[in-house]
Amino acid sequence: MKVGLFIPCYVDQFYPKVGIATYELLQKLGCDVHFPMGQTCCGQPMANSGYEHLTTGCNTNFIANFSEFDYVVCPSGSCTLHVKEHLHDEKQEAAATEIRKKVFELTEFITDILKVESIEGNFPFKVGMHQSCHGQRGLKLSQMTELNAPHFSKPEQLLRNIKGIDLVSLSRKDECCGFGGTFCVTEEAVSVKMGQDRIKDHAKHEVEYITGGDMSCLMHLEGILKRQKSDIKTIHIAEILNTLV
Questions:
Q1: Rounded CA gap, 196 and 176, in Å?
Q2: SS3 of 140, please?
Q3: CATH classification of 126-241, choosing from 3.30.70, 3.40.50, 3.90.79, 3.30.1340?
Q4: Fewer C-beta neighbours within 10 Å, C or N terminus of the chain?
Q5: For residues 155 and 234, is the Cβ–Cβ distance under 8 A?
Q6: E strands of 9-65, at which residues?
């Protein structure tokens, strides 16, 4: 299958190794992966701030870059969800509709489309899994703990067979980290306090790494960890899964 690699703009600028790990992982799993060089921001920051009418250029450019692929895969739940719910173009609505159907978050694509149940990599560390809100509540990548329903987690499913990993069970498995896109700018104090609370749960379980499917959440937590001079590190799930043996 021909896969278009959709890398969020902040990942491209600040965490390119996450994009590289995603590319390499998909190749190892047998995909024909392509990175359209003309891609830019998907428009989520503007839409989150109430300016979705300014995302027209982003939408048109996204369609131009990703129409040719069988699937579009992104290592970010929030950006994936934005495209799934907000990609429209009056002049190319049929193309936009088609892309909305074939865009997937990385772990969702691996479990649901490639039908990979587990990955045998190597990561001998104690790890806490951060379930991002967009991925969990929007894309249904994992079960919400407030529901009386069977537990599942697509990211955790892929991590379970990683050699040496000690995946801890957090006290508050799906608590928001406080990032929230532009929320962390407009409500800085609340955002930071939420992030500090999220880190306390991981620290209580003595994790060495915090992982997740959204580098935006991890970036927020990373900033707080650095200010606390904590030894805990953040790592995107693609980087762990890419240790494929």
A1: 11
A2: coil
A3: 3.40.50
A4: C
A5: no
A6: 32-34
Residue type, 100: R
Q: Of 33, 8, 21, which is closest to residue 119 (Cα–Cα)? A: 21
Q: Which residues contact 197 (CB under 8 A, 6 or more apart)?
A: 175, 178
pLDDT digits (tens, 9 = 90+) for 7-58: 999 999 999 999 999 999 999 999 999 999 999 999 998 988 899 999 999 9
Query: Do 113 and 71 meet the contact criterion of CB atoms below 8 Å apart?
Result: yes
The pLDDT score that the predictor gives to residue 180 is 87
DSSP H helices, 87-214, are: 93-102, 106-108, 133, 154-159, 183-186, 188-204
How far from the centroid of its chain's Cα atoms is residue 65's Cα? 20
For residues 6 and 35, give the distance between their C-alpha atoms in angstroms, rounded to a whole number.
7
Of 133, 135, 198, residue with least CA distance to 170: 198
Q: Is the pTM of this model over 0.90?
A: yes
